[in-house]
Specification:
Order of helices and strands: EHEEHHEHHEHEEHEEHEHHEHHHEHH
Largest sheet: 8 strands, mixed
Distance between the termini: 49 Å
Number of strands: 12
Radius of gyration: 23 Å
Structural class: alpha/beta
Shape: globular
Helix content: 40-55%
Length: about 425
């Protein structure tokens, strides 16, 4: 198949979703809802293959089970109990890893005794002794067993399935084998006996935050350790159109935010980032992490273009000049409605600005941009917030004043 030929068969379309914590999932839901509303000829819950990594695994598993982006929004963003997907409760991710604490505590007396012997009789340097005590530290702060438990409950009802082999489409959830460093493509032949819910748990087990997940005597952690997208899993099996969503990009603080991108968001905050360093260690680490994974993804995208010349690839990610998603807490959930709406509007702007090139690419696969939907100024993902009260306006004005004073003194309040 070449890009210039007319295809008689149904196009094969896949979707790859990268990680990014709860913020990444919120962004992806906003993007998917915008695509669902703005593209005709594309059913996002009936694609040929879904690839999910880390937080993207939650979304991929839902779509592969037939949930629409709006249904996922009702569950994850609106917490609508009437949604087919039920209610997502962020407390699932905040349960302390008590069993891991206990297991490491049991090891501590033996490790202390061995350390004392090495320090005295063995006359080992104290640095080596302290290093060996590291085995007593828990491998994760929070337990993610609730992810497996609650998703298993969800996928056992409403006509869903928790078995890769029973899906009507292909689903691959990628984790990383902790002992080998190799990718584990759950859902592929030989890997499809693992429950979908447990594969999501393993793929999203961010080291340090959650303990590794044990499956068949092997331990697995976040799939993003190996690659950002793992889109090649789908393209190796033959894909005509590959849609890729990546939530995390480095922020360009040297260029003013694009006002067109910022339009339409719910109550956009007045944020200034004169220098990344002004945000302290959290801002520096965030920028570093985003830059590392994004540069790796850019190399991957160039490889995809060379290795799969007959596949059209569409990448959607945030604008590098947009502070909204950069300043948001990666693991925060409180601002989900505002951030999902922002992602929804930002994606609509992206589709409008790239309409010529995108239209040509999508047309080859029977997909068209719905310009009437894109040009509708009343389109929203979430219901517009109520007008602020007099007290609310006063607080907002006070915050703006504090931001201005912080900027003048070199300590901007909005950075962090």
């Amino acid at each position: 198949m070449t890009h210039g030929t007319t295809r008689s068969r149904k196009p094969r379309i896949a979707l790859a979703l990268a990680g990014g914590g709860p913020l990444g999932a919120i962004y992806q839901i906003g993007v998917l809802c915008a695509l669902e509303e703005s593209l005709t000829g594309l059913a996002l819950n009936r694609l040929d293959h879904y690839v999910g990594v880390s937080a993207g695994g939650f979304i991929a598993a839902g779509l592969a089970n037939g949930m629409t982006p709006r249904a996922l929004s009702a569950s994850f963003i609106e917490n609508d109990s009437a949604s087919d997907a039920g209610i997502f409760d962020p407390s699932w991710l905040m349960v302390p890893a008590y069993s891991e604490y206990l297991r490491r505590a049991i090891m501590l007396p033996g490790l202390l005794a061995a350390a004392a012997w090495r320090l005295t009789a063995g006359r080992k340097p104290i640095t080596q002794v302290v290093e060996r005590l590291g085995a007593s530290l828990p491998t994760g702060v929070f337990s993610n067993h609730k992810v497996h438990e609650q998703l298993a409950r969800l996928f056992s009802q409403n006509g869903f399935t928790n078995d890769f082999r029973e899906l009507k489409t292909r689903l691959t959830l990628v984790a990383t084998n902790l002992d080998t460093g190799e990718a584990a493509p759950f859902g592929q032949p030989g890997w499809d006996h693992v429950p979908i819910s447990q594969a999501v748990q393993a793929s999203s087990a961010l080291p340090g935050l959650f303990p590794p997940v044990e499956i068949n005597d092997q331990y697995y952690v976040d799939g993003a350790l190996k690659k950002t997208l793992h889109a090649s899993v789908a393209m190796d099996q033959g894909v005509d159109l590959m849609l890729c969503l990546n939530p995390l990009v480095p922020f360009d603080a040297t260029v003013p935010a694009n006002p067109k991108v910022m339009q339409g968001a719910l109550a956009p905050e007045r944020r200034k980032i004169p220098k990344i360093v002004d945000g302290g260690l959290p801002a520096v680490l965030s920028q570093t992490f985003r830059s590392m994974i994004h540069s790796r993804m850019e190399l991957g995208m160039k490889h995809y273009e060379r290795a799969y010349p007959d596949t059209d690839i569409v990448l959607i990610e945030p604008d590098h000049r947009d502070p909204e998603l950069y300043l948001a807490n990666t693991f925060g959930y409180a601002q989900r409605r505002h951030l999902a709406e922002h992602a929804f509007q930002q994606t609509r702007h992206l589709l409008r600005s790239r309409s010529t090139s995108l239209s040509a690419k999508l047309r080859r696969h029977g997909i068209a941009l719905d310009h009437a939907a894109l040009d509708n100024p009343k389109a929203h993902l979430c219901a517009p917030a109520k007008a602020p009260t007099r007290i609310g306006r006063a607080i907002a004005n006070l915050q703006e004043l504090m931001d201005d004073l912080g900027h003048l003194t070199g300590h901007p309040a909005g950075v962090g």
